[in-house]
Amino acid sequence: MVLVTLYSLTTISGPPLALLFNNQVYPKQDFRAALGIIRLTESSLTAIAYGFIGFYSAGSMEIIPYIVPSVIIGIPLGTYLIRMMDPETFRRICMAFDGLIVGFGLSRVLIELNLASTLTTYSILSIVVLINGYLLFRFFRYRGSPQDIPT
Q1: How far, CA to CA in Å, does 81 sit from each of 50, 75, 126?
Q2: What residue spans define the domains of the chain?
Q3: Residue 97 and residue 39: Cα distance in Å, rounded?
Q4: What's the CA gap between 97 and 136, in Å, rounded?
């Protein structure tokens, strides 16, 4: 129940779930399957709960045609790419992209709600971009020898 609450509030239940299943010493395939089933259940129940409390509107339904093709193309493309590259590299690139998307979305929301000026929000986004760039640079520069990464 705590993980479902964590997911519905923050969408960051992945790391606690990974720790939970990692401590159960599952084989890699079972670990992935268990994590996938839990995440699918969390997402489905959250979507149902959002429907009951009225979070969906006609406007939000209008973007479905733009999202579905991305999912239909993105999942097979991601599966193909992760087989062609080191999983850690793929994970780092995905997390960097996720950080950029979340930072941009947060900037737009703060502007739309008049909680911060455009300059302030995009300054914060610029800082996220710089930190992201630095972390990716550091990863790719030192990825061959983890003991060489400066702390």
Answers
A1: 33, 10, 28
A2: 1-56, 65-151
A3: 20
A4: 11
Q: How far apart are CA 44 and CA 46, in angstroms?
A: 5
Structure tokens at 41: 């259940």
How is residue 135 written in tokens? 């972390």
Read off the pLDDT of residues 42-70 as tens digits, 9 standing for 90 and up: 888 888 988 888 888 888 889 889 889 98
Instruction: Report how far residue 77's alpha carbon sits from residue 38's, in angstroms, rounded to the nearest whole number.
Output: 23
Contacts of 99 (CB under 8 A, 6+ apart): 128, 132
Task: Render the chain in DSSP notation, one character per residue.
Answer: -HHHHHHHHHS--HHHHHHHHHTTT--HHHHHHHHHHHHHHHHHHHHHHHHHTT---HHHHTTHHHHHHHHHHHHHHHHHHHHHS-HHHHHHHHHHHHHHHHHHHHHHHHHHTTSS-HHHHHHHHHHHHHHHHHHHHHHHHHTT-GGGS--
User: How far is C-alpha 24 from the chain's CA centre?
Assistant: 24
Average pLDDT of every residue of the chain: 80
